[in-house]
């Protein structure tokens, strides 16, 4: 009995001795990316788009960069910040990831920020759009957009294009208030007037009273920001009340007219003017190839969230190439700063000072192209930095 | 004239709440079963209707009855398999069971249908507004009011005047005596439960246009169903009906005239009424 036990212990020691260097060697060969996204819950379409785009990118570009194998570990936080924090911790401590990425909503991105700082792990934000996010950790880099980026542009555009009186209708939460503040500032500075400011509760079943209120103050346009999904309901009720025929335009940041929902909104959406960073109808070769590949792979067109994910993984790939495969946080973030490339949405770069994205903002109008609704771009502002930060 | 438009919108919204909640008034109020999964049946009806209209190309009005039948069928099956074992259990058991059912339905629909919001393609005739002496009347909302008005009258007559109605009331009030009198109590309960679920499904299909339809529907609107039944009291159909109207008009008018207060108006109305009449507008005062 005793001999057998000793043999067992010896065998175990040998096994450990042999296996240990192998795992160390393995860790050197792979770069792990922890992807935290809402794959269920109301924000699931964000998570699915980003996950799809990353799969597509890896399929197109292979899973080895600078001699390292890329491994993506996906966690579903269901847009609950507590989950995000727990997963970020697990990924950093147990899985030893080199990068955490994703983050569907602002509170989720903020919840992971202290961990990124502490562990010196880059946090690549691919969706959440509140200005402050990148200021919460020197390791946060963003490839999506900020709401002030698009809202200020539509504010300037409206003031210059004969829109004098505007009613605003925004959802009463951080991104809605960001959008409202940015729009208001630029629109009134351009000589416009806000005749009515309506804030809609986030969980709002019926827009009727708010729309009636807007209709009665007879504005030239309505500035609208509601979370993705509610946009369709809003447009339907807008048309039901006959506001589309009363000459009141709908303007806003482009979230309301997300490409993955646009077609189901119906013809009520035609003519809506929004400012945004991406449209599936963006007329570049790069984008045409991207849309075609995405459609072929997943059977639907990509929205702006997909592009945020596609660019996010590209940023990680390029940073690894630049560091020659060195995957520590400081080298990666240093490599990411100032990086510039051609994305499906157009030319973009990472601002070296704020680590936030600099990109063109396009003014688009919803039109019917080949029987489908698209946001057709007709004007643009080049290289917009996040106005939420440049003020300071 | 704006006042009348607001009133009209409020009535339509209230009617919508009523169709959604009256099935619950039947199961909770009449059968004394706390069925928090009511919204799940409403969602089932909504999705059946949406699939028929958007994918199979059915006309909307033809798909509505099918939404009713489908939800009623699901309700009947679940009643036989699960619910009837819980009739005699405590209300807490019923709550826990039905809440579990809600979460399962959310996950199932998310998996099968995807999490994006679904929009119904409506016929041209139901879109837009009619201008009646300066009052804007939404066509779809008008249809809701008409349908719900008929439904209320029908329901009230069924419960108060028909043989089935009196059997049901007897079965609820005293199952033992009722079965002694030759009433098949389990059958009456099964039918009633299925009917309540059918109503929910019908309401879900009608409401998709205005409230939106996604897998979180049963969770998002659970509170509204409960408010209607609580405020209305659970002894009749008239109670929830009046409660729905009151809450609908109050909510819409509150959001129009006091947009800053937003969703608080509906809760304020509820609290005031419950302080005044703790058993609801038409509640039974004597404990059962």
TrEMBL record, chain B:
Family matches, as InterPro entries: ABC_transp_permease (IPR001851), BCAA_transport_permease (IPR052157)
Location of the protein in the cell: Cell membrane
GO MF: transmembrane transporter activity
TM region(s), chain numbering: 6-26, 33-53, 59-83, 95-113, 140-160, 181-202, 222-249, 261-278
Domain of life: Bacteria
GO biological process: amino acid transport
UniProt family annotation: Belongs to the binding-protein-dependent transport system permease family. LivHM subfamily.
UniProt protein name: Inner-membrane translocator
């Amino acid at each position: 009995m005793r001999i057998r036990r000793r043999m067992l212990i010896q065998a175990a020691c040998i096994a450990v001795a042999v296996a240990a260097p192998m795992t160390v060697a393995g860790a050197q060969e792979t770069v792990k990316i922890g992807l935290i996204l809402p794959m269920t819950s109301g924000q699931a379409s964000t998570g699915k788009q980003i996950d799809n785009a990353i799969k597509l990118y890896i399929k197109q570009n292979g899973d080895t960069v600078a001699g390292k194998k890329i491994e993506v570990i996906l966690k579903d936080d269901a847009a609950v910040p507590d989950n995000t924090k727990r997963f970020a911790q697990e990924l950093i401590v147990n899985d030893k990831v080199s990068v955490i990425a994703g983050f569907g909503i602002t509170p989720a991105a903020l919840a992971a920020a202290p961990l990124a700082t502490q562990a010196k792990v880059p946090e690549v934000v691919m969706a959440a759009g509140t200005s402050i996010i990148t200021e919460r950790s020197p390791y946060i880099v963003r490839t999506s957009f900020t709401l002030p980026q698009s809202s200020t542009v539509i504010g300037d555009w409206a003031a210059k294009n004969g829109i004098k009186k505007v009613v605003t209708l925004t959802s009463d939460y951080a991104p809605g208030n960001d959008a409202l503040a940015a729009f208001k500032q630029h629109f009134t500075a351009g000589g416009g007037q806000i005749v009515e400011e309506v804030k809609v509760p986030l969980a709002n079943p019926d827009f009727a009273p708010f729309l009636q209120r807007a209709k009665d103050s007879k504005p030239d346009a309505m500035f609208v920001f509601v979370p993705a999904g509610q946009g369709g309901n809003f447009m339907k009720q807008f048309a039901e009340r006959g506001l589309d025929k009363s000459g009141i335009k709908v303007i806003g940041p482009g979230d309301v007219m997300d490409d993955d929902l646009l077609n189901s909104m119906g013809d009520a959406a035609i003519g809506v003017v929004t400012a945004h960073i991406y449209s599936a109808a963006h007329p570049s070769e790069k984008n045409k190839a991207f849309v075609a590949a995405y459609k072929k792979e997943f059977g639907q067109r990509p929205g702006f969230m997909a592009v945020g994910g596609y660019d996010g993984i590209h940023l990680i790939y390029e940073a690894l190439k630049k560091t020659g495969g060195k995957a520590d946080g400081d080298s990666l973030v240093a490599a990411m700063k100032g990086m510039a490339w051609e994305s499906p949405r157009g030319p973009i770069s990472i601002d070296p000072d704020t680590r936030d994205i600099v990109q063109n903002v396009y003014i688009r109008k919803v039109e019917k192209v080949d029987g489908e609704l698209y946001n057709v771009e007709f004007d643009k502002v080049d290289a917009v930095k996040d106005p939420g930060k440049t003020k300071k | 004239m704006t006042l009348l438009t607001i009133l009209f919108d409020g009535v339509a919204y209230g009617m919508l709440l009523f169709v959604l909640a009256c099935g619950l008034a039947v199961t909770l109020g009449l059968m004394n079963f706390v069925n928090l999964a009511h919204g799940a049946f409403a969602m089932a009806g909504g999705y059946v209707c949406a699939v028929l209209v958007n994918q199979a190309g059915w006309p909307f009005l033809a798909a509505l009855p099918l939404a009713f039948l489908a939800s009623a069928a699901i309700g009947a099956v679940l009643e036989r398999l699960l619910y009837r074992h819980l009739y005699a259990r405590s209300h807490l058991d019923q709550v826990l069971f039905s809440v579990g059912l809600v979460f399962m339905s959310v996950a199932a629909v998310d998996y099968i249908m995807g999490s994006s919001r679904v929009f119904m393609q409506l016929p041209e005739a139901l879109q837009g507004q009619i201008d009646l002496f300066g009052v804007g009347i939404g066509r779809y909302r008008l249809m809701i009011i008409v349908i719900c008005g008929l439904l209320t009258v029908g329901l009230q007559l069924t419960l108060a005047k028909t043989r089935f109605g009196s059997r049901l009331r007897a079965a609820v009030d005293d199952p033992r005596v009722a079965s002694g009198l030759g009433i098949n109590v389990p059958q009456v309960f099964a039918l009633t439960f299925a009917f309540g679920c059918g109503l929910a499904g019908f309401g879900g299909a009608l409401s998709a246009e205005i409230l939106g339809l996604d897998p979180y529907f049963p969770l998002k609107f659970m509170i509204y169903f409960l408010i209607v039944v609580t405020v209305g009291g659970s002894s009749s159909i008239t109670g929830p009906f009046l409660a729905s109207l009151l809450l609908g008009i109050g909510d819409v008018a509150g959001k129009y005239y006091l947009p800053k207060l937003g969703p608080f108006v509906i809760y304020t109305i509820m609290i005031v009424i419950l302080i005044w009449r703790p058993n609801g507008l038409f509640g039974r005062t004597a404990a059962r």
